[in-house]
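Section 3.1: Structural characterization of target chains.
Under the original work plan, the team committed to producing a structural model for every single-chain target entering the pipeline before any wet-lab resources were allocated. The record below documents one such target. The sequence was received from the expression subgroup and is listed exactly as submitted; it comprises 186 residues.
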Amino acid sequence: RKSYPVLRKDTEAGILLTAQEIKSSSSATVWRFTGDDAAGWQVSLSSGFVALQVPRYTSRREFLGRLRQVVEAAHSAFHPASYDRLGVRYIDRFEQESQARMRHLVRPDVAGIVGQPLGSQKASLTHSVTDSVFALGAGDTLRARWGWLPANATIDPTLEPAKTPSWILDLDMYREQSRPFEVEGI
């Protein structure tokens, strides 16, 4: 609480979609702890997970230090015996004004048809997203989503829409395998 003094209670709701009906599924309370600084660090805690997120951070060392603090607090408060999933998600966005820079940082086969001529001056790309899942072995998985989105659009509720068209890169790396909850191992 010292590092994240602002506390808010949210409810996470589920929806079950079948061919016959749409109905609400289980819901859970999510406690959101935020810092009182402008950086935007947030810890989310529910009965099934603990997560650390931030829109921007200055270094990997800073992120890992804060992650250690969160994992140590969860261990101290709840003494969990094991965990089933450990993941890291990284999202980057190039808004329209930085599109030229993107071409120097992103491989052409990943950038796809963004910025490519379409044979007509009247044609312009408005939406193109790739969603790929890679099995990396030993229970490790990488879900990679990337592509061009129009203004005010998103592909995920955790990804805030941009006010201008943008190219996104969303990498979600995780391992689903039950392991003992040990701070050093995590």
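Residues 60-78 form the longest helix (19 residues).
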